[in-house]
Amino acid sequence: MNKALTIKDIAEIAGVAKSTVSRYLNNGKVSEETKEKIRRVIEEHNYEPNAFAQSLKAKKTKFVGIIAPGLDSIVTSKVIMAIDTTLRENGYNPLIINTSLRKDLEIESIENLARLKVDGIILVATEIKDAHRDVISQLKVPFLMIGQVCDGVTSIVNDDYHAGFEVGRYIQEMGHQDVIYLGVSKDDTAVGINRRNGVLDGLRYQNNLMNIRIMESDFTSELSEKIVNDALKDSKPSAIICATDRIALGARKAIQRHNLSVPEDISLTGFGGYDLATLVTPPLTTIKFENEKTGHLAAETIIDLMEGRDVAELQVIGYQLIKSKSVKHK
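The line above is the sequence of D-tyrosyl-tRNA(Tyr) deacylase; the predicted structure tokens follow.
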């Protein structure tokens, strides 16, 4: 068995041009007599063409690039798994790239995927800089963004503002007057601005006298634990609203370090609807976003774009407020 046989070798053995073998492998126009010569050589030598290399020469590669900021995120993982499933069911092969939250790698990955002539690119975005806009504007392949909005770019986003508003209004309705909102940088438009603004508007709905302290973390539980630990040295809020469940789990650790409990001393909420949030005691009050739906919709949308069908420039995913025992009425 000789699997190392090249297209050049096949051409020499069959007595045809290398370009003829290439056309044969890519279902191009070749005479029946020549097809038989090439087929016989391939069968005798058990030749197996490189599927990826072969696809790059075809008009349709059947590969879709997926760029993710990190694979350790529960939300991102669920979205990508749903994308992967739907793409494969429709005959496309996902190429998943992890950038570990490095913006330079996001830009580089978009450019590399375009050079590889993938049929489409999906970016799971955390923030959009001018460098993103520049490289996206030069693309000649269908492009889809998940999680952020960019003018002229097809996008799928969570309904962050209204989800935040519902959490803020719920905490207000439960009688809380002294609240910490632990958010993330405004560089992240969806979470750092839209979600934050929704929470603040909900908290102030029919009550502008509430004491609200705004603090900033990143997406790690470690930093949120440190921030809340320091905040509790000065004063104790009646509730802490966290921008994600992971941030909330860090805040919960800090609350326990001060020998306080949830919700007896401090009520606590998050966003994300992680499975882990239901395993702690008490289960976390949170917003559950439809992550699997996002993934399936993303795959369907990029397929529509690749196949020339019209799609809406912006699609918004819904949510559900899960009221658990981590919030009590004051």
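Note on the example: The mean pLDDT is 90. The CA atoms of residues 178 and 193 lie 21 Å apart.
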